[in-house]
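Lecture notes, unit on protein representations.

Consider one protein chain, 119 amino acids long.
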Amino acid sequence: MDIKLQHLKNLVMIAMADGILDPMEHEFILEKASQLEISKKELNKIIKEAEEATNSIQQNTLDRDEQLADAILMAVIDGDIHKNEVKVIRELGRILGFTEKYIDEILQKSYNLWNRTSQ
């Protein structure tokens, strides 16, 4: 499977983990799809699969720091981190080779920073 497609699928899974695709999450996904040159048709298919919970985190360690950063941004962008989003990010982080402690630290720091800058 294409690495860019896997990355976008992972982001959609995180966005949908709390059961809601927030407008800010949707906008981020649209921007990332455009950057990755993924068509609107393919993006709609990815979102539909996520709504039907047929996706799972895809293994891909290329650009692992960027993938984790994007995943965390996706989780905090709506101002709240749902427990299901944390679960998916931990799974992705583990697949990417990060420790749970590191993931939790980065997630908390990012959440705190996001909340300070969005106020």
